[in-house]
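User: structure tokens for this one?
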Amino acid sequence: MIQHDADGAMGLVLTRPTDTTVGEVWQQLSENEELDLEEISDACLQLPICIGGPVPGQLIAVHDLADCSETEVMTGLYVATQRATLMRLFQSDARIRLYTGYAGWSEGQLEDELQMGGWLTCDASVESVLGDPNSLWDEVVKKIGQDILGLNDKSQLPDDPSMN
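Assistant:
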């Protein structure tokens, strides 16, 4: 969840990386504008662009560099969308996850969905949000299951409950 207030909510799906990288997008943009690949760190060029949700929108960077924060989502986790800020991020060694699109809810819609039981929730961490999007779903489902069961000693849980 990036924003949640009386006017509605905006969030990102964290588990949908694409096969498209920042480098490929940058290459395409360079054909129309004078953009230099040298301006972006090699690590950043390899980052996948993720699908953040069904609503089209600008490129959204979720990152851990306070100096490039346009919005603080939680302690140590920030969002940036402005081109100049994105360029600074691309030249840094910040941990970054890039999204195109987002999920949105109108005023009161998300609260209604939560009250009806349409969502299971858990606390986020910087590590999980900026970690591997391919394993995040399994990690979160396991955590929610443990919370529902009220398990304090998680050492006795199998890694794969389906093998039990």
